[in-house]
Structure formats: structure tokens, C-alpha cells
Write a structure and sequence with these properties.
By secondary structure, the chain is mainly β. It has helices at 115-122, 136-146, 156-161, 169-176; strands at residues 2-7, 17-21, 26-30, 36-44, 49-50, 55-56, 93-100, 104-111, 126-133, 183-186, 198-199, 203-211, 214-219, 222-227, 234-238.
């Protein structure tokens, strides 16, 4: 079996899951809180391509994707000047500010109808819908104008480092002081961590929960945070890993 993708569960009401293929069928390894995962990671290679219900495997050694199966979303690089042959983002877009505890605030844009989903995909703790505009080009221009005050990307390791923290109320209020948000959001992912989790790449342990693409596992008294994208491409063997893992100070 190979991990060929993941689902944050943000786009619908399904549970988050790892997408697993045995070269014949595609299945979902659900990541509900309390689920026991017992896999050892084997070799890693290209995860191939996913269809709606199937998977086309690839044995090239590049991971998570080889050149033939890697894809780049050109719109992610847009700053208002369309990079496509023809602009096709003619629908309402939301400009938002997302908060990641304690004081990281990110500007972003998305199609308006997808705003809540996009925020959950990123694992935002809070957010504010700043403006709605008529197309993606205008939204990217506004995002670009705000980029000198707010980053437009937050790295997963930075999110992991503060999963146990809360948003600083005063800093968030200051960030929003110059705006009149159309709506605000607060998300609870149910992790309830009291200490920083240990960053690891593994598929063994009890699922605590997920926040965006971060999977939180408890194993032998230590809480681990796994970037699910770092699992994509790995072959799986049944049975918990026996490799030595870093333990948190709380286990001693």
C-alpha cells in the first residue's frame, strides 16, 4: 500500500483521511479522533495521479511527485497580472486575513463561496473576511498591496510550533484596526494541547485530531505533529514503527 494523498476534511463533512492505494483500489484511512494507526513507513516514491475513485501509480523515485506528475497552480503566483493565456476567474472573490496563534496574520484570497473551506484547509485559528470583489485579478491586487504588512504564506513548521498556543487578542485587534470586516471566524479543531508537539513523520499512534494538513498523534506519552504532505509517496507496512523517536520532556 502507498499513501497517495490526504483529505483535510475541510471541503465537506467527511472525516479527514489519508488516501491509500494498493495499486488496484483507492481507500480512505480515516483520521477521526481516537483512531489507532499502526503502520511503518517504507520506501518513498512518486504518488502518481488521483482520479475521482482511482489511482494511477508511478514508480519513479522522486517524491512526493516526479516531474511528470507534479502540478503547479499558476494562480498562486498571481499578483494582479494574469499569468494564463486567458483570465478565467470571473466570479466573486474574498480577501481575508487569517490568524495563526499567537501573532501570525496572513493575507489571502479565495473564491467567496469557498472561504470557510479555505480557512479550515490552512488550519487558521481565526480569520476576518475583509472585502469581496468581482474577480480574482482585483483580489490579487489587493492582496499584493497588503503584502508589505502581512505575509501571504505561513510555513507548516511555523504552524506546528504554536499548535498549543492561543491567538493573542490584542495583536489580532490591532491587525484588524484599519479594516471593517464583513465577517469574522473562530475555529476549534479540538486538539487541546498543553505543550508544543514534536514534529515527526510517522503513521503510528492514536489520532488526537487534525488542523489543516497537520495530523496530531499520541504515542507512548508523546504528542507528535505530522505534516500529511510529508507522508505522501510512502509505502506502508502493517505494524507500528519500531524506530527510535524523539520524546517530549513531559514523558520523563
Amino acid at each position: 500500500m502507498q499513501i497517495v494523498g490526504y483529505d483535510t476534511g475541510a471541503a465537506d463533512e467527511r472525516s479527514p483521511a489519508l488516501l491509500v492505494s494498493d495499486a488496484r483500489t483507492l481507500s480512505r484511512e480515516r483520521l477521526d479522533s481516537g483512531t489507532e494507526l499502526s503502520y511503518t513507513l517504507g520506501e518513498r516514491h512518486c504518488a502518481g495521479t488521483l482520479g475521482d475513485d482511482d489511482h494511477v501509480a508511478c514508480d519513479r523515485p522522486d517524491a512526493p511527485y516526479c516531474d511528470a506528475h507534479a502540478s503547479t497552480w499558476v494562480c498562486a503566483r498571481c499578483t494582479g497580472t494574469c499569468l494564463k493565456d486567458e483570465m478565467d476567474c470571473h466570479e466573486d472573490h474574498a480577501v481575508y486575513l487569517a490568524a495563526f496563534a499567537p501573532t501570525t496574520f496572513k493575507v489571502g484570497v479565495t473564491r467567496e463561496w469557498r472561504l470557510d473551506t479555505r480557512l479550515r484547509e490552512q488550519g487558521a485559528d481565526r480569520a476576518a473576511h475583509l472585502r469581496t470583489v468581482t474577480n480574482g485579478r482585483v483580489a490579487r491586487e489587493i492582496e499584493s498591496d497588503l503584502a508589505d504588512r502581512f505575509p501571504d504564506r505561513v510555513r507548516v513548521p511555523d504552524k506546528v510550533a504554536t499548535l498549543h498556543r492561543d491567538v493573542d487578542d490584542d495583536a489580532w485587534a490591532d491587525a484588524l484596526a484599519d479594516f471593517s470586516p464583513l465577517d469574522t471566524f473562530a475555529f476549534d479543531y479540538g486538539l487541546d494541547l498543553d505543550a508544543r508537539p514534536v514534529a515527526e513523520t510517522l503513521a503510528s499512534g492514536t489520532v488526537v485530531g487534525t488542523q489543516g494538513r497537520v495530523l496530531v498523534l499520541e504515542r507512548a506519552g508523546t504528542t507528535y505533529a505530522v505534516d500529511m504532505r510529508d507522508l505522501v509517496g510512502y509505502e506502508l507496512r502493517a505494524g507500528a514503527t519500531d524506530r527510535s523517536l524523539q520524546a517530549s520532556l513531559g514523558t520523563f
